[in-house]
Design a protein that fits this description.
By secondary structure, the protein is mainly beta. It has one domain: Ubiquitin-like (UB roll). The chain contains one helix and seven strands, in the order ββαβββββ.
Length: 85
């Protein structure tokens, strides 16, 4: 599926082409600079806020995240989404 990824307050629009690519990877290949370290859902450095839409984790995060926070290193969108960096 192709889902649209909007970056809140930046007027940037990305497209998610491959379901098996993480959201973090999609951000990187679209030259969106974001912090990360482990890429395993363990450190929380890549945390983003999900404003609208839904994601699915392909690996369950091992750190605590608040409601509406996501770890893009271990998730993929399953609908169009709006995220805040």
């Amino acid at each position: 599926m192709i889902y649209t990824i909007y970056l809140y307050n930046s007027k940037s629009l990305l497209f998610f082409y491959k379901e098996h690519f993480s959201l973090l990877y999609t951000l990187e290949i679209n030259n969106v600079i974001t912090q990360y370290q482990c890429r395993l859902g363990q450190c929380g450095l890549c945390k983003l806020r999900l404003l609208t839409g839904k994601i699915k984790y392909f690996k369950i995060p091992t750190i605590f995240i608040q409601k509406n926070e996501i770890l893009p290193c271990v998730c993929v969108p399953i609908t169009n989404i709006i995220i805040q960096m």
